[in-house]
Amino acid sequence: MLQLREISFSYDRKCPTLEHISMDFQEGRITGILGANGSGKSTTMKIITGLLMPQEGQVLYQGEAVSMTKKALFQYRQDVNMVFQNPEQQLFYTIVKDDIGLALENLAYSPNEINERVSRALEMMDITHLADKPIQYLSYGQKKRVAIAGMLALQPKYLLLDEPTAGLDPKGRRKMADSMKKLVAAGTNIILTSHDMDLMYDCCDYSYLLHKGKVLAEGDKFQLFQKVDLLEKAGLEAPWIVKLHQAIKAPLALNEMDFFKQLLKGDVKW
């Protein structure tokens, strides 16, 4: 398990960015970190991956404190890695399959192992047809999927996704949501940040709500997302499914598809 224990961090000592936050990222689920701009989401993600060192508290992995030495982080980041919001930050080669295999080459994997892992990552992200395409000709959404595939080739146990649907059209958003659920079903644990509250409700099994660097609330979708007052205090809106549930007392659906199934069955009364 991956855990944060009493983490505090500040870019400016006079203004704390994170204050004594604790989170548990259990296996087999998508864990969301919610919050408005400036709440500390991105800082939390960078601390989890070791890009920033906490000034207080510890990051624990498999029950042990994560060492911030270069050697220890090198090993740790093969199990815990992040895909940034802007895919351009993580794409370096000209051809898709070469870029996905870049990290494996740097780790001195055999050509056969690289080919197998790249093929699997392409398949998992449903971009096998793009393997030989020049990256410069891909759409923004395709580049995001290539960047994620590059991390999947490392076979991480935890994959952190920072605003994975930002800049995507509705079709791209749906495909990304489906891909995340498939990854978790295949054994990859996901930690997710997004301003898209409908996406977070749909995908996240458990979430933490950050406000001004503190954990304001936590819980599963049936607990946290119904606390509309706390969401509003944190500068966020409740998902439309929750708004509808509270307005007309419709059964609280798991996601959009579940809601329309209830509607067709007659469970939702207008």
Automatic annotation (TrEMBL):
Residue ranges of domain ABC transporter in the record: 2-237
Keywords in alphabetical order: ATP-binding, Cell membrane, Membrane, Nucleotide-binding, Translocase, Transport
Superkingdom of origin organism: Bacteria
Gene Ontology, cellular component aspect: ATP-binding cassette (ABC) transporter complex
First-listed, main subcellular location of the protein, grouped into a coarse class: membrane
Pfam families reported in the protein's UniProt record: ABC_tran
MF annotations from Gene Ontology: ATP binding; ATP hydrolysis activity; ATPase-coupled transmembrane transporter activity; riboflavin transmembrane transporter activity
Topology of the protein relative to the lipid bilayer: Peripheral membrane protein
GO biological process, one term: cobalt ion transport
Function: Part of an ABC transporter complex. Responsible for energy coupling to the transport system. Probably part of an ABC transporter complex. Responsible for energy coupling to the transport system.
Protein name as it appears in the record: ABC transporter ATP-binding protein
